[in-house]
Amino acid sequence: MPHPYETLPDHSFWRSAVADRDALEIAGLWAPRFPIKRRTRIVTAGSCFAQHFSKALVARRYRWLDFEPGPAGLTAEQRRDYHYGTFSFRTGNIYTPRMLLQWLTWALTEARPPEEVWERNGRYYDPFRPGVEPGGYVSLEELVQSRSETLAAIAAAVRGAQVFVFTMGLTEAWQDRATGVEYAVCPGTVAGEFDADRHGFVNHGFGALMGDMTAALRLLFRANRGLKVLLTVSPVPLTATATGGHVLTATSHSKSLLRAVASELVEGQTRVDYFPSYEIITHPAYRGRFFAPNLRSVLPEGVDHVMAQFFRDQMVAFGGEAAAASVPAPLPAVEEAPEPELTEAEELRCEEELLAAFAPDRRHD
Amino acid sequence: MTEVPRLCVFGDSHYACVRQAEAQGLVDVSGVELEYWGNVGGRFRYLEFREGAIHPPDAAVASRFARFNTKGRTVLPASEFDAILVMGARIYLWRVFFRLLTALADGPFVSEGLQRRFLADGLRGYHGYRLAAGLASTGTARVLLAPVAYYTANPERFAASVSPTMARLMAEKLPWFWTVLTEAAAEDGIALIPQPDETVVEGMFTDPAYAVADHVAKADYEHHNAAYGAVILARALAMIGGGAPGLREAAATGTMAVTEGRC
Q1: What residues are paired with A203 via a beta bridge?
Q2: pLDDT in tens, A65-124
Q3: Residue B74 neighbours by CB under 8 Å, 6+ apart
Q4: What is the radius of gyration, based on Cα positions, of chain B?
Q5: CA B137 → CA A261, B54, B73, distances in Å?
Q6: Residue A362 has pLDDT above 70, yes or no
Q7: Which tens digits make up the pLDDT trace of A157-183?
Q8: Which residue from A226, A236, A314 is spatially nearest to A50, judged by alpha carbons?
Q9: Domain range list for chain A
């Protein structure tokens, strides 16, 4: 009787799948569980790497949905600075499973966000998304009104989507010691004031991460029974660690846990899948080629390769059109309108005004 | 040697009304040495600021600008003036205001910070404004800016574009819009001259009393008459200290009445 390895495909063996190939020829890393087609309604959220997903989807004319596009008429720069169009709602980066769970709880249940706000120079900042409003809000009322729109957008996104893409980024976070509520960043960095008695550091363990993600998935599926969830792990290393350890090992620790959580969830939940963008960027097989010299920022060619694998693996699994080469994304809002050319009639009218004003010119008499 | 401030009115066709105000004697300009430099928007758009002056793109366009200048200037050097009034210059704030008011009326929520950004970017996005900022950056002439006035009121033509919500917002927001833009311009060394209240009707339109002659027949809702030019020129003179004392006071307080010379 042949042993089990004798019948395995090439991709099961390191030499044939990896070592004997050019890194860019490594294929079939993902066997997707569900199809994502151009008409599939997709929403994205999570760590900063998630924004590349939406851009790639939009560039290929996929149906990425933005439930909080912001006011009409903004320029691309204004939209970027005010975090419109980065994710499907204006939460800014959601780094941890706990933060995702918090946002979903506030958006999909009766629970309300805490009343805590951060102040700096007379401006108000949302502790749960302090970066979305450059310079802060002018009033508490403005902050609350803006956040309520975001919560409504999250609820609409969850209920209106077919696929929810979430990129997990970190295990380290800062919490309110009394309530356990988690902040987007450490108080005192972007805004607010750090209080050692009140603010505590937490590095979530596997159990906590699983618990938060499981609870978050429960909320998602309760709100939308047909929803599928696609998980990814951000390949971007930690900027800094508060563990006291080395940032390199802290990064490995954090990413490894998140990666394990993703696999565990895929094992246990049929509506959840994992796409290995993390491996494509970080694995030694790729020899760091997709990182910028700071070994942290992901280069555009890395993002392109990740997304090419995404679309190719979808095509291999479910057929359909080959993934089109990247095309420029359509502008989601009007750019600053170029000053229009004058029509012939307008030009004539302007000329007449000048001639009337300057002829005869008494000073030339 | 010049004893009085040297003032240049620079702009596109919208500067014609200032010249008409002077020609019709609506404003006492004896306190300044006045020059004009400009041309219609089609040429105006290709102007370039460099080396302390505004340059036309070629000799042909330069000659068009020199045509209406008493000294035949083909370029506009900031250092040769004490003040430059940039008039019109294809800076259509009506459009910026209208877009923001539409956003505020239609939703979603627009924070005050984003409104400020929208307004400031809108102003700074105009080529004419960047020319003015270039002049101001020389630190020589004082630069005043009077953007293109609101379109002349015409209920039949514009009523459909202004919803009741927008009309309410105009009254509520426009003074603040002008304050924001005045602050933004000041950051660039430019003294903005908001459209004077006495020339405004229905929130964001210019009183037909300040329209060019036969504006309806000509379908010209953009250009304005000598009376409007007089109001702006009086403001400018008051700001640079070049107007007659009584006029200076009236212009500063917004009580100047222009009763003749409307074309």
Answers
A1: A172
A2: 999 999 998 999 999 999 999 999 999 999 999 999 999 999 999 999 999 999 999 999
A3: B56, B59, B62, B63, B65, B66
A4: 18
A5: 57, 12, 21
A6: no
A7: 999 999 999 999 999 999 999 999 999
A8: A236
A9: 27-364
C-alpha–C-alpha distance, residues A53 and A87, integer Å: 9
Residue B43 has pLDDT above 90, yes or no: no
Query: pTM for this one?
Result: 0.87
Q: Cα separation of A203 and A181, whole Å? A: 14
- Is residue A237's pLDDT more than 80? yes
Chain A: closest CA distance from residue B46 (Å): 11
Is any Cβ of chain A less than 8 angstroms from the Cβ of B121? yes
Chain B residues inside the 8 Å CB shell of A76: none
Q: Which residues of A touch B16 (CB under 8 A)?
A: 353-354, 356-358
Q: Which residue of B lies nearest to A334 if distances are taken between CA atoms?
A: B99
CA angle A358, B241, B188 (to 5 degrees): 85
Q: Does A122 touch chain B (CB under 8 A)?
A: no
Cβ burial of A148 (10 Å; 0-12, 13-18, 19+) is middle
> Which DSSP helix (H) or strand (E) runs through B88?
strand B83-88
Nearest to B13 among A341, A354, A364 (CB): A354
| Residues B110, A142: Cα–Cα separation, whole Å | 9
Q: Which is nearest to A92 in space by CA: A129, A66, A65?
A: A129
Other CB atoms within a 10 A radius of the CB of residue A275 amount to: 24
SS3 category, B76: strand
Which residues share a beta bridge with B34? B7
Give the model's pLDDT for residue A365: 37
- Three-state DSSP at A171 gives coil
The CATH fold assigned to B6-253 is Rossmann fold (3.40.50)
The stretches of A269-340 forming alpha helices (DSSP H) are 277-282, 300-318
Domain ranges of chain B: 6-253
| The two structure tokens encoding residue B110 | 């627009």
Which chain B residues touch A339 with a CB distance below 8 Å?
45, 90, 126-127
Q: Is B114 on the interface with A (CB under 8 A)?
A: yes
Contact A358 B16 (CB under 8 A): yes
Q: How far apart are CA A344 and CA A226, in angstroms?
A: 57
